[in-house]
Amino acid sequence: MYLANYFGMLCGAELELAEGFRNMGEGHGQEPDVYFICHTLAKQCDEHVEKLRPFAERYGEIAPEERNRLGPKIFVGPREGGLGLLRDLHDLYVMASFCSITWTMVGQGAQGTRNPELLEVVESCESETATQMKWLETRMKQAAPQALIAAS
Q1: pTM (2 d.p.)
Q2: Using the 8-state DSSP alphabet, how is residue 115 labeled?
């Protein structure tokens, strides 16, 4: 059963996303909303991993070196300035997108194994990930005009 591969990818991706949110919150703490929202979203990612753990233990989980090979390590921030904020938001959006589609695949596995408990976790976490992506998209739209057009 290859569902374990996706548990490993998803756990690794959620942990990296949590780390990215925390780093961004610290690096762009001068922005009124970024510090607190990023720390809240990081906590959500940590909770996603905890909710997934019982299923990963039941079905298995791929080795950490495979997780690193398959999951993205995109966030290199935090960068400085308005353009840095925009690029950091963009990186986190890509990471959240990876989590989102991976949740979808795990959901397909939950349906295939007829596991309603796993499906419930997937639906809950997938919904929170969608909200994370919406915040990131909205924040990018807010930051983009000044970052892309204003003189540095």
Answers
A1: 0.88
A2: -
Q: List domains and CATH numbers for the chain.
A: 3-149 (1.20.1260.10)
Question: What is the DSSP secondary structure assignment for residue 2, as one 8-state letter?
Answer: T
> What is the greatest pairwise CA distance in the chain?
56
Q: Which of 31-35, 37-41, 79-83 has the lowest mean pLDDT?
A: 79-83
Model pLDDT for residues 97-150, shown as the tens digit of each residue:
999 999 999 999 999 999 999 999 999 999 999 999 999 999 999 999 888 887
Give the chain's end-to-end CA distance (angstroms, integer). Answer: 53
Three-class SS of residue 25?
helix
Give the whole-angstrom CA distance, residue 71 versus residue 98: 8
117 φ/ψ angles, rounded to the nearest 5 degrees: -65, -45
Tokens representing residue 99 in the block: 């989590």
Contact between residue 17 and residue 92 where contact means Cβ atoms under 8 Å apart: yes
Per DSSP, the residues of 60-121 read: ----HHHHHHHS------PPPHHHHHHHHHHHHHHHHHHHHHHHHHHHHHHHHTT-HHHHHH
Task: Give the separation between CA 72 and CA 65, rounded to whole angstroms.
Answer: 13
Residue 146 CB neighbour total at 10 angstroms: 12
